[in-house]
Specification:
The chain has 209 residues and is α+β, with helices and mostly antiparallel strands. The protein has 2 domains: 133 residues, no CATH class; 58 residues, no CATH class. 46% of the residues lie in helices and 14% in strands. The strands form 2 sheets. Strands 3-4-5 form a 3-stranded antiparallel beta sheet, with helices on one face. Strands 1-2 form a two-stranded antiparallel ribbon. Strand 3 and strand 4 form a beta hairpin. The radius of gyration is 20 Å and the shape is globular.
Length: 209
């Protein structure tokens, strides 16, 4: 008997759909985080609407610098597209779900409304398209605004034998996740994700401080 295909940790919602006909809880969490991040980036792009004015904001660690030369037009077009895309997805829900309706207007309202509809999208044929359009919007906003800042925090001694280095976790400063994007030693030893359980307690403590 052929063993069923296993999904990897970095699988996409389309993989879920192809495998079991619906989007899994892990992918829904990622989509939910993407909607929250989109709202943050949309708000940050306010500064790019003023031509000629440099945009420089200090973050927890690092900064994102955006110089407004032609960004005003680019930002306006992207903000308009984001609002239109989310409005269309909200319209789909309104058309297909009795009694479901956003409580107002604006991107923040649309984001909140769609986040509440994610369990429904998990089983809807168009749920994968929502995920992929959201990913495209996020990529375009990040391209417009530049690289995201990160926060680096110490996790204690390296787990590699005979290494006197210190492990550091790297966490995106713009997201709400508490799982680091990378764990590595300052002497160059990277800790693979499968070994992160070795320092899980340190990660939780450092990410909340």
């Amino acid at each position: 008997m052929e063993e069923p295909e296993r999904l990897t940790d970095d699988h996409a919602s389309r993989d879920c759909r192809n495998r079991c006909g619906r989007i899994c809880a892990r992918c829904l969490d990622r989509i939910d985080g993407g909607l929250r991040t989109l709202l943050d980036l949309y708000r940050e792009s306010d500064q790019a609407l003023v031509p000629g004015a440099p945009v420089l904001r200090e973050r927890v660690s690092g900064s994102r610098a955006t110089v407004g030369i032609v960004l005003d037009e680019q930002a306006l077009a992207l903000r308009t597209r984001a609002a239109e895309v989310l409005a269309l997805w909200a319209r789909l829900v309104v058309d297909e779900r009795t009694g479901a309706r956003p409580a107002g207007r604006g991107l923040a309202v649309l984001v909140g409304f769609l986040r509440g509809q994610l369990p429904w999208f998990a089983g809807h044929p168009a749920g994968v398209d929502l995920d992929e359009e959201l990913a495209e919007l996020l990529a375009d906003f990040r391209h417009l605004l530049g690289p995201a800042p990160v926060r680096r925090f110490a996790l204690g001694p390296c787990t590699r034998p005979e290494c006197a280095g210190t492990l550091y976790g790297v966490l995106s400063a713009e997201g709400g996740d508490r799982v680091p994007d990378q764990v590595a030693c300052d002497t160059g030893h990277a800790l693979p994700p499968r070994q992160w359980l070795l320092v899980a307690g340190r990660v939780r403590e450092a990410a909340t401080t």
